[in-house]
Amino acid sequence: MSTFVYRQGVLHAEACAVPDLVRQFGSPLYVYSKQALLSQFQRYQDALDDHDGLICFAVKANSNLGVLKVLADAGAGFDIVSVGELERVLRAGGRPDRVVFSGVGKQRDEIARALAVGIHCFNVESYPELELINTVAMELKVQAPVSLRVNPNVDAGTHPYISTGLKANKFGVPVEDAEAFYRRANDLQHIEVVGVDCHIGSQLTDTAPLAEALDSLLELVDRLAASGIKLSHVDMGGGLGVSYKDDEQAPDIEAYIEYIKSRLAPRGLSLVLEPGRSIVADAGIFVTQVQLLKEGEEKNFAVVDGAMNDLLRPALYGAWQRVQPVTMTEGRDVRTWDIVGPICETGDFLAKDRDLALQTGDLLAIMQAGAYGFVMASNYNTRPRAAEIMVDGAAVALVRRRETLDDLLALEQGAL
Ligand code: LLP
């Protein structure tokens, strides 16, 4: 089923007309499609087929409980980076033994909770972290399964803020130091070395850097095996991109997984992947309403009710996302607009230089907003965060209600 399509000139989310959704739930609004979410996850799962492994959805991309529940019910694993994300997974019904725990700064209480519920693996990023995990595991009298995050020093060719596999980045252990690291890890009493992982960056439209990273990981796996350290899984992280722009091609998930499987099978290694964006970006849109039009000598501004606090990617990365009118119109003048929010920052824009035929009151859809959208929202300028809804055919669920001002102020006290 096509997810976000026009019927009689009106944008629909599955079988629901977007203007009806806005009438019911207000604007701005995040709208997710259950079918799109499931079908994209299923592509990964089907491609894995009977090769042993786990597709661990990167919770940071969209941590709404409704989204996690759909994926948990479909058998997904999860990649988490905090105990908060772990609790979300558990509340959504996710299985702890399908959770991998990534991140450079895991804290003692987070490690303890993850050990207590029995996660699949810690993706360790430094020696001090490994020692901390060993200590906490000793206190709890358990063994901690770990994988080492290797930094293969490959250029993922993506935005500098989301490129993670270079020596200059804070992530992982340099591949040259990895062997020594594994030997030290092997000597720790409460550590069980089970795998190796990497994550070289996000929004990759070319898989060549991932293949290069895989080569480097497998050389390491072979060297370790020769010295008696046998790993059971390789985790390639996330990173596959989506088509934000027409000239941006999303890599072929099936071909990518086939390739990795062909390299792992002869070594009897299982595969873990941590996709985020490629599962959820296309499954969501952000809907916002034009408040007023401000035409100027140099620029025309459409001021909308959504802002950088709702959808930060354009402001933070200069990210480009499609903007589509929710209702198609005829006979109106097309002009070039910057789509901006009401926040007091020049950087508060959702899109720049878009040719659109706008009028006050129009609804606009920002496409591919299911990943790194709501999760990066804030209350800047004391703006309550938008509602999130999920559609399934003609059915709609409010998966997070719109915040109220009372919600925002509830945690604050009066004067000293
Ligand atoms: N695994 C690890 C260890 C990661 O750091 C990430 C993303 C993922 C998996 C998931 O990667 P994905 O499949 O989504 O590319 N806020 C940025 C993206 C930051 C990604 C951070 N790490 C954006 O909006 O573009």
Which labels suit this protein?
Lyase, Ornithine Decarboxylase, Chain A, domain 1; single chain; 21 strands; binds ligand LLP; 416 residues; TIM Barrel; eight-stranded parallel beta barrel; alpha/beta; 12 helices; globular
How would you describe this structure to a colleague?
The protein has 416 residues and is an alpha/beta fold. It has 2 domains: 4-32 and 281-409, Lyase, Ornithine Decarboxylase, Chain A, domain 1, CATH 2.40.37.10; 34-278, Alpha-Beta Barrel (TIM Barrel). 29% of the residues lie in helices and 25% in strands. The protein has helices spanning 18-25, 34-48, 65-73, 83-91, 108-117, 127-139, 178-187, 208-226, 253-264, 277-280, 313-317, 405-409, and strands spanning 4-7, 10-13, 16-17, 29-33, 53-58, 77-80, 99-101, 121-124, 144-151, 173-174, 191-197, 233-235, 270-273, 284-295, 300-304, 323-325, 335-340, 349-356, 363-366, 387-392, 395-400. Strands 4, 14, 15, 16, 17, 18, 19, 20 and 21 form a 9-stranded mixed beta sheet that branches. The chain is globular, with a radius of gyration of 23 Å. The N and C termini lie far apart (57 Å). The model has no long low-confidence stretch (mean pLDDT 96). It catalyses: meso-2,6-diaminopimelate + H(+) = L-lysine + CO2. The active site is at residue 344. Residues 37-281 form the Orn/DAP/Arg decarboxylase 2 N-terminal domain. The modification N6-(pyridoxal phosphate)lysine is found at residue 60.
